[in-house]
Amino acid sequence: MINLTINGKPVSVAESSTILEAAKQNNIYIPNLCYLEGVHQFGSCRLCVVEVEGARNLQASCMVPVREGMVIKTNTEKVRKARKVLYELLLSDHPKDCLSCERNQSCELQEIGNRLGVTEARFEGERSKGFEDFSPSITRDMSKCILCRRCITVCKEIQNVGILNAQNRGFKTVVGPAMDLPINSVNCAYCGQCTVVCPVGALKETDAIQSVWKAINDKKKRVVVQVAPAIRAAIGEEFGLAPGTLVTGKLVTALREMGFDDVFDTNFAADLTIMEEGTELLTRVKKALTGGEATLPMVTSCSPGWIKYVEHAFPQELDHLSTCKSPHTMLGALAKSYYAEKIKVDPKDMVVVSIMPCTAKKFEISRPEMKNNGVPNVDAVLTTRELAKMIKEAGIDFVNLADSQFDNPLGLSSGAADIFGVTGGVMEAALRTVYELVTGRELPFEKLHVTPIVGLEQIKTADILIEDPLEDYKFLDGFTVKIAVTSGLKGAKILLDQIAKGESPYHFIEVMGCSGGCIGGGGQPRPTTPEIRKKRMAAIYQEDEGKALRKSHENEYINKLYQEYLVAPNGHKSHDLLHTHYTK
Ligand code: HC1
């Protein structure tokens, strides 16, 4: 530990801390716009300057590591004046359209100005050239960029994608892809992590709000909505509730009050995914063990940012992806077939809206693979943040809503489906079902949690030994299923490199494109910090453990769906509606 003094108060902090982190740990506020926890800092905004005894100039506290005996002052007149001028310089090159900016009241620049007591824009500088750049998932408004470079850090250091950089110099500096290329023409995975860390309105999800209101208001349309597993553990934050507050029942009520005709649960399709993906895994392993040709490891395919990353970076490894569509597109396909037939609605008159924690899902629904008979499985994706805006716009008092239940037949789900929202959850859900189908016994872990793959570490692995299987699965007797789980594209690259070299020891891998899985998705409430991810994760496990139904194969509506419509997992109809194949 290092001992130092901040504002006259002696404190002890870990050796690796910077001054900014030391202050934060001791509840001393220092303004900052470029700092990001746990990564290399850029030190570009300089708003975090402090006085360090013995130093000639003010120091950027995010860049200076603590030293034994340091004496720091964060609140002197010199510091306050300097921060104010630095802030005013940032403001001189920033639009003043706060009232109509989508980040109004959630803008970090605005909040810091308020804290610093800035009441006028004293300087009006030469303005850098602003332009907008649209993609199906992400919209860039470069007139609002303050060049903090958080997006560069998250793209390069956390996601290992690295398509963003500072281009040009001085007033011509723009953060974006090389040669000013539009974002939809480069290898962007559309994960949206840049939109989560952007402190202002420069990077955001591409808006779907207006098209969804239009559909709701169109009396000729049957508007079906579905909610991803991770939303229920996060959207409360948009209404002032503590991170990790579960609001599943309120969410359902709010969607009904907004005017959606059917409120379904993507979790239902997560249970279905387990039936389909589990069967696919068993088929591939059986082939491999009985002398046939099978592509292993099989890798999960529900995270569209991850799919896009493989297509860009490892197109030769696409066959490792499971052929399952992602759960929300499965649900869309079933809503427009199975359910539309039941309620006698032409699929062309049905609009399916998915509430997702993910910006890449906006792109995913436009893919030709996500259509049946020329009709898209899902018509619009709203992020958690967009839905919260719509609920506010509708004047709904979210916090005080009563709970209600999802509609059936596409609304019942098991706890296994809930945990799809966290890293390791898809794998655990699959193992709960596959292990029991193969052995006739429950997965031998306390509370059914595969503990080695629970948590936020970058890569987690486990070995599952199959002993004494049922008659149909004798080929698995004594076989050890080797699994790996990662979240964030940096970890995914490590596992893909092993596959590409033919050195992967695994049979089944789960990859989620964002750190922590969907709880940390690019469409989730801001901020999303490591601490907040942990709280959302705990909420998801709480939801799982609170359910009587914990395994996908015990979902009565899934079994009914197979009896009435699909016949069997991986059957002809399933392949038609629920599976696809990604090609180079
Ligand atoms: Fe996810 Fe999924 S869990 S991808 O992480 O497989 O976005 O929440 O909806 O489709 O079920 C996201 C979350 C989500 C799909 C499911």
Topology overview:
Elements: E1 2-6, E2 9-13, H1 19-25, E3 49-52, E4 59-60, E5 71-73, H2 77-92, H3 108-116, E6 132-134, E7 138-141, H4 150-158, E8 165-167, E9 174-176, H5 193-197, E10 203-205, H6 209-217, E11 222-227, H7 248-258, E12 262-265, H8 266-289, E13 298-299, H9 304-313, H10 327-343, E14 350-356, H11 360-364, E15 371-372, E16 375-376, E17 380-383, H12 384-393, H13 415-418, H14 425-439, E18 459-465, E19 480-487, H15 489-500, E20 508-512, H16 530-545, H17 556-566, H18 572-578
Parallel strand pairs: 1-5, 11-12, 11-14, 13-20, 14-17, 19-20
Antiparallel strand pairs: 1-2, 3-4, 3-5, 6-7, 7-10, 8-9, 15-16, 18-19
Helix pairs in contact: 8-10, 8-14
Tell me what you see in this structure:
The protein is an alpha/beta fold. It has four domains: about 1-115, Ubiquitin-like (UB roll) (Roll); about 130-205, Alpha-Beta Plaits (2-Layer Sandwich), CATH 3.30.70; about 210-270 and about 330-400, Rossmann fold (3-Layer(aba) Sandwich); about 275-325 and about 415-580, Fe-only Hydrogenase (Larger Subunit), Chain L, domain 3 (3-Layer(aba) Sandwich), CATH 3.40.950. It contains 18 helices and 20 strands. It has a five-stranded mixed beta sheet, with helices on both faces. Strands 12-11-14-17 form a four-stranded parallel beta sheet, sandwiched between helices. Strands 13-20-19-18 form a four-stranded mixed beta sheet, with helices on one face. The longest helix has 24 residues, at about 265-290. The radius of gyration is 25 Å and the shape is globular. About 50% of the residues are buried. The structure holds 2 iron/2 sulfur/5 carbonyl/2 water inorganic cluster.
